[in-house]
Amino acid sequence: MKHSASESKPLSSGLAIYRRLLRYGFPYWRSFCVAVVAMIAYAAITPFFAKLIQPLIDGSFIDNDPTVLRQVSLMLIGLSVLRGIAGFLSEYCSGSVGRRVIADLRRDIFDQLLNLPCSFYDNASGGQLLSKLLYNTEQVSASLQQGIITCIREGFTVIGLMALMVYQNPVLSLVFLVLGPVLGLSVRFVSKRFRRLSMRIQESMGKVSHVTQEVIDAQRIVKVFNGKAYEAAKFATENDRNQKRQMKLIATDALGGGVIHLISVAGVAGILYVVSLDSVRQTITPGSLMAFIAAMAMMLSPIRRLSQVVSVMQRGIAAGDSIFAMLDLPRERDRGRISLKRARGSIEYRHVSLVYDDRHGAAVDDVSLVIPAGKTVALVGQSGSGKTSLVRLLPRLYEATAGEILIDGHDIRELTLESLRRQIAYVGQEVTLFNDTVASNIAYGCLDRVGLDAVREAARAANALDFIETLPQGFDTLVGQQGIVLSGGQRQRIAIARALLKNAPILILDEATSALDAESERYVQQALEVLMQNRTTLVIAHRLSTIQNADQICVMRGGRIIECGTHAQLMAARGGYADLYAMQFGYSSVPEAVAVHAVRR
Ligand SMILES: Nc1ncnc2c1ncn2[C@@H]1O[C@H](COP(=O)(O)OP(=O)(O)OP(=O)(O)O)[C@@H](O)[C@H]1O
Ligand SMILES: [Mg+2]
Predict the structure, then answer these.
(1) Residue 400 predicted with pLDDT over 50
(2) Which parts of the sequence belong to the ABC transporter domain (predicted)?
(3) Per-residue model confidence as pLDDT tens digits over 297-320
């Protein structure tokens, strides 16, 4: 799996990911610079707090000068105000960079989702993708924001305090030579473990949202098939795993922090021991010693925070890694240069094949088919014979594995995707409605442009006007997720109205009237036939009665077209079509069906 591969990525690739994340911050470099300056100012002010201890102690207790106390307290307030302003600016500005980076990342992910090919979605989980958009982006930004604030602010604080200590007493400062490497090693250990844990947490976050999303989408099935316990158990497993992994992360963090604290305290203890030696004690004043120890103590919390920043950054790197992996996936190919205004609508398939997956055979196998502009071709055949797959190739929802498809003589790959898809209206086998009003569903994305009258007209032609007018708010009724408040046949008529309104030269109807009762179907069929007159139409139907008038009927089997002709020709040929016909209309044999058919004519 991808995750285990990324776990073993070397540190350099972690750096590369972080650099790429930083690039998202570049456009906001002004806020970023203000934040950095404020952080450095904050860090520069801190050592003065420690330094003030020296005059405080030496001045008041040794030189016995009470005015020093007053001066020191005023200076304390002044320093605090300055540090407060610097702290606010650094948090605010870096926060604003962080939030804008999240928004930008989400925009890029969404844009990528719009542009990924259908084949990507065949193997993707919506929940996992959502979790990337919502959870991973937050992790990334937290890592950028906190990571940078802490690194700069606490890093400079530590440097400032160290400088003060060296200034106060160079000899004692040698303690860092011992402490430095020990601290470095423990931080490194914690950091590696963190990245691994973070990746696992992201993965389980994705699964939690995946299970949740499925239950939301399929809640009726869950209810009817008594799947509550099953789903609850599935959720509990993922939820539990997520929680346990989070706890491991927390434990590592807390333990890491504790160990680093201990190491630092050991440093203080070491210094106290050195100072206890008589020879050393005589060389420093009490105030100087106190300032030195205060500086050391003040370093504890920045060092601890610096050690924790590693975890935040590792989380960001892990999250960024999975986001970038998705952003780097190839998009739908759109290299065409030709932009067709309005096609006449002639279509030609030349030896077209489609293999979805190498493990299975071809869903479309060497199909050649010519459809003159304005004609209607019907595709019939058993379930799974490749009818839907064949028509999906036309708007390039999938790319043909071999062969070529031409519209008006242009290879469809030479057309821009936008102009290709502008030529095609499509009613799919599964109706897709958006959680929006009836009107917006019919005029998908173009309500402002076409106006309500056109929407009404399309609804009328699709035999949908009657039922729409009985809805509580008519065209303004919200249809719910996937049109849940409508009946199957109502949904289908809205989808047909949507296709009619698009008024494209090529019409694809994949089982478009399968959910309608006989009367509605006849009515919609009449409307469709009017519409088909000056359009190239590809109709797929199981109910053969609906396609008898097609200019050409093609029978598919196992991805191939096994015969083509008009209804009469195919009946006379007594092949696959005549078989299907006989079966559907309940004749006991093909000859009987052919005979009855001949009499009818
Ligand atoms: N997205 C996909 N990924 C992999 N295989 C697919 C995909 N869609 C369809 N198939 C396979 O391709 C074959 C043809 O499917 P297709 O949907 O084209 O059949 P169909 O003729 O439209 O059937 P039906 O009448 O049931 O709608 C089937 O074996 C199916 O399993
Ligand atoms: Mg189909």
Answers:
(1) yes
(2) 347-583
(3) 788 778 777 777 777 888 888 889
What local confidence, expressed as pLDDT, does residue 152 receive?
83
Residue 411: enclosing H or E segment and its boundaries?
A: strand 410-411
Closest CA to 168 of 52, 78, 66, 59: 52
Whether residue 463 lies inside any domain: the answer is no
Q: Of residues 309 and 351, which shows the higher confidence score?
A: 351
Residue 601 CA, ligand 1 centroid: distance in Å: 35
Q: Collapsing DSSP states into helix, strand and coil, what is residue 235?
A: helix
Burial 55-90 (b: 16+ CB within 10 A, else e): bbbbbbeeeeeeebeeebeebeeebeeebeebbebb
Question: Closest Cα to atom 9, ligand 1: which residue?
Answer: 389
Span from the CA of 361 to the centroid of ligand 1 (angstroms): 11
Q: Is residue 120 part of a domain?
A: yes
Domain count, the chain: 1
pLDDT digits (tens, 9 = 90+) for 500-547: 898 899 999 998 888 788 877 887 787 777 778 789 999 998 888 888
Quickly state the pLDDT bin for 9 (edges 50, 70, 90): low
In the structure, ligand 2 is a single-atom ion and the residues with CB under 5 Å from it are 388, 429
Task: Answer whether 356 contacts ligand 1 (Cβ < 6 A).
Answer: yes
Q: What's the gap in Å between 387 CA and the centre of ligand 1?
A: 8
CB-CB contact of 167 with 347 (8 Å): no
Q: What is the structure's pLDDT at 601? A: 59
The residue whose CA has the least distance to atom 16 of ligand 1 is 386
362 alpha carbon, closest ligand: 1
Per-residue exposure over 454-486, b if at least 16 CB sit within 10 Å of its own CB, e if not: bbbbbbebbbbbebbeebeeebebbbeeebeeb
For residue 26, tell me if it sits in a domain: yes
Assessment of whether the complete model's pTM goes beyond 0.70: yes
Q: Assess whether the C-beta atom of 383 lies below 6 angstroms from ligand 1.
A: yes
Ligand 1 centroid to Cα of residue 559, in Å, is 9
Shortest-distance ligand to the CA of residue 364: 1
Q: Does residue 116 fall inside a structural domain?
A: yes
Range of the domain at 52: 2-327
Best of 116, 353, 387, 508 to mutate for ligand 1, by most ligand atoms within 8 A of CB? 387
Q: For residues 45 and 486, what is the distance between their CA atoms, to the nearest angstrom? A: 66
Q: What is the reported pLDDT for 599?
A: 65
pLDDT interval class at 4 (50, 70, 90):
very low
Which ligand 1 atom minimizes the distance to the CA of 360?
Answer: 5
Closest residue by Cα to residue 584 from 547, 521, 542, 554: 542
Q: At residue 7, does pLDDT exceed 50?
A: no
Query: Which residue has the least CA distance to atom 19 on ligand 1?
Result: 384
The answer to whether residue 458 scores a pLDDT higher than 80 is: yes
CA-nearest residue, atom 11 of ligand 1: 363
583 CB neighbour count, 10 Å cutoff = 12
> The dihedral of CA 47, 48, 50, 54: what is its sign?
positive
- Any idea what the CATH number is for the domain that residue 200 is in? 1.20.1560.10
Q: How far does residue 383's CA lie from ligand 2's centre (Å)?
A: 7
